[in-house]
Structure formats: C-alpha cells, structure tokens
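User: Hi! I have a protein structure encoded as tokens and I'd like to know what sequence might fold into it. I'm fairly new to this, so please keep things simple.
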C-alpha cells in the first residue's frame, strides 16, 4: 500500500490535475502520507482524497495540498511560511521540504500534539507548531513570505493579511462554510493585494477559540 508504485500513481494524478512544478511533485513524493493518518486509514493514504483525522477534521486531498503549495511558491523563493490549520501536519510537512522555516498553528490541542509527534518521528526539524487560534496569525514571527490558510471562512481575517511580508503571498479558501469555496491567492504589492481565483475547493470551517 505504501509501495513506490502506489506513490508514483499519486504523482501522476497530481500532474494530470495541473501540478507542473517538479519541486512540489518531489516534495509530495518525499512525504509518507500514510504516517499522517490513523493506521485504519493507511491503506487509502495514497489515494487522491481527503481522509478523516479525528475530531471532525480531515487531512486535505493531495491535489489540493499540491495546488496550494504550487501557488504559494510561484512568485519566487520563500524563507518563511505560516500555515493556519495544522490538522494532521501533512501540509506543513510538504512545505517543510521546500521552505527553510515553516510555522503552523492548530486550535485543537490533541491534533497539534499529534502533528508535533509526527514531525519528531520523521525528523522534520524546520517546523514550529503550536496550539493557537489561527485567526490571529502568529505575530511573534511575522512577517511571513507566505501564509496558507487550510480552513474555510467567508473572509480572510485581517490579522493574516497584516502578517504577509511585502512581495509575499497568501492562499486561502474563501466562501460559505459548509459549502464550496474559492481558492484565492493574494499577492502583496506596493499598492495592495492582487487577487487571483484558483478554482473551487471544499474545506472544513475556520473556527475561533481553542479546543
Ligand atoms: N492542513 C491540514 C488539514 C487542515 S483541516 C493537514 O494537512 O492535515 C483544517 C484544520 O484547521 C483543522 O484541524 C481545524 O481544527 C483547524 N482550524 C480550524 N479553525 C482554526 C483556527 N482558527 N486556528 C487554527 N486552526 C484552525
């Protein structure tokens, strides 16, 4: 189930889905997704589908992870990235293959702890993770060259825009919670944010407070 062939099939599927950045494909190929889901789900880890990770949350579909990662990297090299919604830790682990320093926040303590354990076991050392309400970002280390929101809201919290560095990028699913959102990419220019629509996505909601 975790054979090279199974993983290669997923990479082909991502290519067909429009992921052309070889760095992103290599990063997905390098991260063992089966280690970011429960053992009971491991046999499905290399299918291009979201899977439950407990507490009503999901590990995102690989095509969505790869598309968001590609969008974040497309404007030039990034030194630091902030992810909102650690979940399983999978998206952060993919980013950690490509970016020197990744920060990630998760509001559910249990998921945050579990993700940190996974990073430790996999010896991924360039991720700093904490439990926090991501709607406030992580001001201490701001600004970030990239901000990636992996939970849906009808608007992006202002604090997250504020923490994007000049020339930086923010990618987020924006739209009705419980419905279909648009994946939006905001690029910070001198005059403000330029916005691009990258297509339809479905994410679990961005909630406030800790759990
Ligand atoms: N990136 C994750 C999947 C995200 S699922 C992965 O690769 O597995 C969305 C996650 O966002 C959930 O774990 C949810 O608890 C979390 N979340 C929702 N609202 C949040 C908030 N305000 N701050 C931080 N995390 C939040």
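Assistant: Happy to help. Inverse folding works backwards from shape to sequence: for each of the 211 positions I chose a residue that suits the local structure. Here it is:
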């Amino acid at each position: 189930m975790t054979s090279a062939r199974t993983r290669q099939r997923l990479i082909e599927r991502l290519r067909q889905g429009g992921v052309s950045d070889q760095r992103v494909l290599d990063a997905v190929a390098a991260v063992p997704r089966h280690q970011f889901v429960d053992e009971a789900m491991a046999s499905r880890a290399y299918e291009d589908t979201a899977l439950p990770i407990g507490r009503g949350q999901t590990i995102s579909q690989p095509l969505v992870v790869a598309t968001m990662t590609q969008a974040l990297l497309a404007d030039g090299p990034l030194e630091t990235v902030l992810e909102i919604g650690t979940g399983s830790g999978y998206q952060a682990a993919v980013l950690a293959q490509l970016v020197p320093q990744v920060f990630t926040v998760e509001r559910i303590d249990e998921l945050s702890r579990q993700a940190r354990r996974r990073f430790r076991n996999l010896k991924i050392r360039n991720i700093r993770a904490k439990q926090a309400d991501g709607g406030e970002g992580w001001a201490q280390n701001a600004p970030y060259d990239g901000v990636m929101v992996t939970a849906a809201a009808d608007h992006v919290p202002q604090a997250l825009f504020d923490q994007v560095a000049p020339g930086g990028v923010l990618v987020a699913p924006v739209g009705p919670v419980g419905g279909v959102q648009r994946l939006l990419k905001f690029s910070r220019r001198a005059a403000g944010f330029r916005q691009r629509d990258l297509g339809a996505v479905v994410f679990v909601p961005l909630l406030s407070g800790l759990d």
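A useful reference point when you look it over: The first strand starts at residue 51 and ends at 54. Feel free to ask if any position seems puzzling.
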